[in-house]
Amino acid sequence: MTSVLATLAAILLLLPATVQARSGAATAARTGLAAATASTSWTEYHLDDGHTGYDPTQPQLTAVSTGWVSATMDQNVYAEPLVFNGVVYAATLNNTVYAINQTTGATVWSNHLGAPESGGWNCGNVSPQGILGTPVIDTVAGLIYVAAFFHDATEGVDVYRVIGLNLASGAKQFDTAINIPGFDWHTQQERGSLALHSGFVYVAMGGRYGDCPIYYGYVVGVPTSGSGSQPFYRTAGTGSGIWAGGGPVVDDATGNVFAATGNGDCGAALQNDAVVRLNPTTLAMQDYFMPADWQANWCNPDQDLGGAGPLLISPNLLFQAGKHGGGFLLNPNNLGHIGGQLYPAQSPYVQADVCHGNTGDATFGSFAYAAPFVYLECDSHGLVALNVNTSTPSFTICGSTCGAPDWSAGGSATFGPPIVAGGAVWVVDIGGSGLYAFNQTTGAQMFHSAGFGVNHFVTPAEASGQVFVPSQTVIRSFVMTTGVTFTPPRLDFNGQAPTTTSAAQTVTLHNNESTTLNVTTAAVTGANASDYVKGTDTCTGAALASGGTCTVQVSFRPPSLGGFPASLTFTDSASDSPQNVALDGMGSLDNQTHLYTLDRFGGLHADGTATPMASSAYWSGWNIARGAALFPDGSGGYTLDGYGGLHNFGSAPSNSASAYWSGWDIARGVTLAPWSTSSAAVGWTLDGYGGIHPFGGAPAIAGFSYWGGSDIARGLVILPDSTPSSVAGYTLDGFGGVHPFGGAHSITLSPNASKTNPAGWTLDGFGGVHAFGNAPAQTTSGYWPGWDIARGIVAWTGSGTGGWVIDAWGGLHPFGGAPTVSPFSYWPGSNLAASLAGPGFSSGARAT
In whole angstroms, what is the distance from residue 408 CA to residue 658 CA? Predict the structure, then answer.
């Protein structure tokens, strides 16, 4: 790192360049959103880059209950909701994006991006048209990308723009107009979902309802770097729109992009009624497939093959069906041009029906796949499950007869595209009769909600056992119940003084099965089991009738400072036995009496009743102090200067940083190890590029995010259960992006956080506190919209949740349940405060 910094010492770090480099670097490393995170996230249309729509991690449901309904939004929602880090994201036709708390349904933030167009097109059936297609979330860059359509009254023009919003705050961080030669918004419409790969946001375009000429099918690549040309694919013939809600899919193995087209001019084979494969960086067409009867049975009667987006079953198998009711299995690596399918047979060719033999407006939108079935909606014929043999390859036809091993359900209903989770296929009735769940193996109905209105082609999303449905101007949630559930699902003890015992907390086990549940044991398990005390236990040995409950009490007694995660493990007769209830707590001081403010000149100021400690370095009038960190026992610590120098205070001995950049203000934060003491003072510093540098004998850290040349890193935290042989934590970038290293999954500032319990908050410049992981949403007592004045955040390690925010004048503002701390150093109008620190926690700092 030192040599890299020396080489780059003359680089001028300008903010706009930083924004572009940050976004591009982060997204370039992204190879797709893996289904492995599906239990807590749904970050793009139908979950993954192949659009399988299947969450394999959700346990088999036994019941479903109706959850929250969001506040009314400002227009209708056609897009699929997305979910990440406990927040549900929805986008409206009024060009507004909403972030909704996944647990409560409360609005976290909303951002109206500008007036949508409400007329002037040659034809169509959606008005106004702002955001119509499903957005996509970049979990690395911390952005949600939308394709929005605007009417610019000042300029008198209409334009499609790809906009990236900060997931935590909703702030706009990316904004690029789509610029295609010859593009005519009067006839073109963006309805397909967005895709993200290879440094591009892929946007598909088709025509408007009514097929007003002249329009083409497009896939446009918008660089996430914010600069560079926009490659695009345009169908060879007019009228071959790429318009289905499913949009393009991406093969993670190759990066290749696949899209399905509509009809167009039927006089020549010009990728009309086709599946096309596109180069990921140039979007040049590499290959295509068209049915052998494309002209007579698909194109002439206007029965688009591209009425639904492709489904990528694997890198070697793709499923496609469309309005004429025929299905195809294709080789993505060799689409075979006209009649080149793997199934049905190429010669003699006979259509493989998928929707009870219906050949007119048979299926729309997209599909889902959970072996061995492909699931598809069939207009006026409900839901169909096609049994697929992936090795032959082939599937069982659903023609005039549609029997086993296929199944169908839903009668004559018209559903939106299906998804699969919790052993069920979930579909929404477009006719307004509500949400259905059908057993994914048999088709038996498992759930049917009350009726509610929806828009055409809408599809639900799922995360953490909750299903989210766009219902015109609201999002509706539904909660799956599995065989055995626990209230609460985890116990968080927050901070507890070492060798003292917390108040007992109670876990209630609920038997949701239809039969008696026999509980064998309830025991504290894990490496830290001895740090928890099991109290009254009515579960061990109990036989619980259906609907019955039992309880177990647990207390926390930490032996020392640091984090001590464990589990309360239940063994019983349920199919998912054993079940674990996470236990998390931290041995810590109550830091409300150990808070310190660092000013920009290096002065360390005790807050409240904290013991004053003089810093060993002070630079009067010189803005050079960058951070402060205390030992977990609060007896001393270090301040950090902008060059990387460490300066001891209190009980801390002198210490030399492993990285020092004389004359170059690049150091950004310091943190001490959870096991650090005055006799073994170890920790790490953070540079502005994201480099993490050990000192005092701390272990080196690998796998962190790094942005060479971009001064973007702002904070560093270490999970409290880290050990010398296993360190995990997070860095925070200046745009709110959170970047794990060492096996962590989200930012943590909460004392109950651990490697298995991501929990905490980030702070924006206006004072907004944003929850991540399992931390509850909070409202800070200090918030200054439009005024970049917030400087640091520290979580409370006492008996409750919350913490404190420090502003640039030194004001301390509690949030959550944290107590008020007074007095504190305060310099009105001075912009003097740089950072806030407490035992085991430091807020990080930035150059100002």
Answer: 66
Instruction: Assign 3-state DSSP to the chain and report helix, strand, coil percentages, each to 5.
Output: 5, 40, 55
Residues β-bridged to residue 415: 429
**What kind and span of H or E run contains 648?**
strand 646-650
Q: Tell me whether residue 78 is exposed, middle or buried, using C-beta atoms within 10 angstroms of its C-beta: 0 to 12, 13 to 18, 19 or more.
A: buried
Note whether 357 and 400 are within 8 A (CB).
Answer: yes
User: Rounded CA gap, 189 and 129, in Å?
Assistant: 9
Beta strands across the sheet bearing 424-429: 54-55, 419-421, 424-429, 434-439, 445-448
Tell me the pLDDT tens digit for each residue of 664-677.
988 888 989 999 99
Helix (H, G, I), strand (E, B) or coil at 355: coil
* Highest mean pLDDT out of 109-123, 272-286, 508-522, 728-742: 272-286
DSSP 308: B
Return the structure tokens found at 305: 């093959």
What is d(CA 159, CA 177) in angstroms, rounded to the nearest whole number?
7
Query: Residue range 813-829: average pLDDT?
Result: 87
Condensed to tens digits (0 to 9), the pLDDT of residues 109-132 reads: 999 999 999 888 888 889 999 999
**pLDDT band at residue 652 using 50, 70 and 90 as cut-offs:** very high
Determine how many CB atoms are found less than 10 A away from the CB of residue 234: 21
Residue 441: pLDDT over 70: yes
Output the pTM of the full model. 0.66
Spatial CA neighbour of 526 closest among 595, 456, 582, 475 = 582
Query: Is residue 204 within 8 Å of residue 233, measured between CB atoms?
Result: no
Instruction: Give the whole-angstrom CA distance, residue 367 versus residue 311.
Output: 6
